[in-house]
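A note from the maintainers: we've had questions about how concatenated examples are separated. There is no special marker in the raw files; a new sequence line simply starts the next protein. For clarity in this README we add a label.
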Amino acid sequence: MNNPLLVPLEKSWGSAEPHVATVIQIAGDEAGQAMPKRVEKNWGYELHYRNDDLYCMKLLHFNGVDNTTSADITDYATSMHFHVIKHETLLVTRGTLTLEVIINKQPTIFLLEEGMAWVICPGHVHRLMALHGPVDIIEASTRDYDDDSVRIG
């Protein structure tokens, strides 16, 4: 059956900056397909769908540990860090995320499975790790600034 309202969309993960392929403008804002910017990382990659004064939205993909992965933690984990300004919520959409945080000066490990989320406020020291295979996370946050992360290990 031919549906005249059905418009095929194209996958694109190579934009220089995240943007909207505008379908309509309403009161000065845009609606349409989000075209992400891909950022390669040692542990996988990020797809930045939006990063502006309204909000930031990313998909973080961790390759994860397997039998061929090196012993270098940077191949499957972020550095231990905190954000000065950014407030974020991490939603695990695939795999099991190992989350290391500092609570009352003590390192603490949590395992977050698919469908589980964690809120990280400014100053909350954390490291994300894919110790049990590949992990995908949706990050929703306030605006992400390059100089907002303080790496501590």
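[label: protein 2]
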Amino acid sequence: MPVTQTAVLAALDADDPTGLLSALAVGPRVIECPDLGSGRLVFPRYRDVRFLLRDPRFISGPTASGLLDELSPQVRPIVAPVASWILYADPPLHPRLRSLLSKTFTPRRITGLHEKVQNTASSLVQGFAAGGGGNAVSALTTMIPVHVISSLL
């Protein structure tokens, strides 16, 4: 299979993506993947990703702005706080937020969450099954983080 967007999407959906990931690792250094969103590029090599994450020329702020620009003017004010999330924050905000979060998300604290996450997931899955099923992704992936983050606060 040529190393294209199709290969990237196949690797994301594969039960065992080992072979596909190996092909991506020796293929092009960057793969354009418009189906993942506007202007989305995939960098399959660890060295390239590490470089991009540490180079100040590659910042996240424009990503948040671009996200907002793609929304209708009526929705933008509602979603605008996304631009301040750590995921989209750039220096000097990002290091400040990371410092605050690192005090809360210590390895010991995360290890201590294991039982809470497992119990929460089991309870939600049981409720989901008892309710007749539905969209498991939206039913479970929304509520698990809410329960876990609430327990941290």
